[in-house]
TrEMBL record:
Similarity comment: family membership: Belongs to the CCC1 family.
Membrane topology classification: Multi-pass membrane protein
Source organism of the structure: Clitoria ternatea
Pfam families, per database record: VIT1
Organismal lineage: Eukaryota, Viridiplantae, Streptophyta, Embryophyta, Tracheophyta
Descriptive protein name: Vacuolar iron transporter
Keywords: Ion transport, Iron, Iron transport, Membrane, Transmembrane, Transmembrane helix, Transport, Vacuole
Substrates-to-products reaction catalysed: Fe(2+)(in) = Fe(2+)(out)
Compartmental location: Vacuole membrane
BP terms from Gene Ontology: intracellular manganese ion homeostasis
GO MF terms, alphabetically ordered: iron ion sequestering activity; iron ion transmembrane transporter activity; manganese ion transmembrane transporter activity
Residue ranges of coiled coil: none
Transmembrane segments: 71-91, 124-148, 155-176, 188-207
Amino acid sequence: MASLSDHKNVNEISVNHVEIPLHMGSCVEARADVDYSERAQWIRAAVLGANDGLVSVASLMMGVGAVKENIRATLIAGFAGLIAGACSMAIGEFVSVYTQYDIEMAQNKRDNKRDMEEKLPNPFQAAIASALAFSVGAVVPLLAAAFIRDRNLRLVVVGAVVSLALLVFGGVGAVLGNTPMGKSCLRVLIGGWMAMSITFGLTKLFAKAGF
């Protein structure tokens, strides 16, 4: 009787042992089925829009702050940059995606495909998404500078907050696209620093030249 019981326990253990890796394997297969290339287009648009809004408006505010102590001038410049940039991103994305839409529609007609229209890009959605993404990024330096009267402190705070936001945007893009986190964050951060430094330096030089 003892041997039969032992044999039964061994069978139960082996069955339980088999079930666990099968369950884990199904999870691995489900994760492996994620096609990150399908996310590439909207990730690129979102990250590009937010990063562009963040860097361009922050650089604009840095440039104005290099020659103007008045916070009002800096904030007006930043707000104007937000509006102009969001409109530019929306129009540019609309034209670009609409061109892609026309090309794919013409190709579908040549190939006599009638069931592909729902998969075609939507220019209006792309335009709105790009404008919103740009605005989200552009708001960050505006909020960072809004309540700081001292120019030097304001520039330091804007630079620090923008740097942190660049790391966040780079990390989000890496997670959504399943790409290396460190490279993505470092690439975005260095690019932002370069843009702000060049804008600040050249504006300062331009002002000292008496223009």
